[in-house]
């Protein structure tokens, strides 16, 4: 789970991004102006910032310059705007912004940019930690390596084959059908809503199917989409159609109980 700050003066944008990123398992902080963004940045170890360019007090590019000059640009920053020019995007990238998203932001572009930004930030932190550890280790003079022992005359080396582990079998229970990918698991026919009309029975099964994967993946829409083979936008629509609650954090809380 990452700590992400969303800075935008439009409340609708803030709420939408908060909902989407919250569904992905991230902790989202919000700011509606540069002054509030400065305060949140100073009080929290942020992993990523989504920063709007046009704001009422200080524009996003100026705030980005301020962070860079003050040594506070320690996290990836993705700029957002619906009216910025190419020159503005280039300037923001030159200062240190990782990416630029044009409003209205497409869902797939947003999630891809966030994923790349978090990966870049993690790699930078690991590199900094490695360099710090290496700098603190005193120089060690290596000892001469002893010669390798020679094999004894007439000695032989025996290789023993390792017994292969038997593959997991699908073991259906009485009156049930095996579930693919779950060794030994089965859905009993008596548990299926067979007495309902076909449409209602299908909806009931799909609701249980997606709730199972949401609980198993702790609410991560990225992993649920991969497991179910659905494109993410289609997955969102399907879950809302089935009436599945996507409240932020509900699946992580259920998993922990």
TrEMBL record:
GO terms for cellular component: cytosol; protein-DNA complex. This is DNA-binding NtrC family response regulator. GO terms for biological process: regulation of DNA-templated transcription. The modification 4-aspartylphosphate is found at residue 52. Residues 3-118 form the Response regulatory domain. GO terms for molecular function: phosphorelay response regulator activity; transcription cis-regulatory region binding. Keywords: DNA-binding, Phosphoprotein, Transcription, Transcription regulation, Two-component regulatory system. Pfam families: HTH_8 (PF02954), Response_reg (PF00072). It comes from Quisquiliibacterium transsilvanicum.
């Amino acid at each position: 789970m990452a700590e992400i700050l969303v800075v935008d003066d439009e409340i609708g944008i803030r709420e939408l991004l908060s909902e989407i990123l919250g569904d992905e398992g991230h902790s989202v902080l919000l700011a509606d102006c540069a002054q509030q963004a400065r305060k949140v940045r100073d009080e929290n170890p942020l992993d990523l910032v989504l920063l709007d360019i046009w704001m009422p007090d200080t524009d996003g590019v100026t705030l980005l310059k301020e962070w860079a000059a003050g040594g506070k640009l320690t996290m990836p920053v993705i700029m957002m705007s619906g009216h910025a020019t190419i020159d503005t995007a280039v300037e923001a990238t030159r200062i240190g912004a990782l990416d630029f998203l044009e409003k209205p932001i497409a869902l797939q572009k947003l999630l891809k940019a966030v994923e790349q930004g978090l990966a870049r930030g993690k790699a930078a932190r690991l590199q900094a930690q490695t360099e710090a550890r290496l700098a603190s280790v005193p120089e060690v003079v290596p000892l001469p390596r002893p010669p390798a022992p020679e094999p004894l005359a007439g000695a032989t080396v025996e290789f023993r084959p390792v017994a292969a582990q038997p593959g997991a079998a699908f073991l259906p229970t009485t009156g049930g059908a095996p579930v693919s990918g779950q060794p030994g698991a089965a859905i009993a026919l008596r548990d299926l809503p067979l007495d309902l009309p076909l449409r209602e029975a299908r909806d009931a099964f799909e609701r249980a199917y997606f709730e199972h994967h949401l609980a198993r993946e702790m609410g991560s829409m990225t992993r649920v989409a991969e497991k179910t083979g659905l494109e993410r936008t289609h997955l969102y629509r399907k879950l809302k159609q089935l009436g599945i609650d996507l409240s932020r954090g509900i699946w992580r809380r259920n998993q922990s109980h």
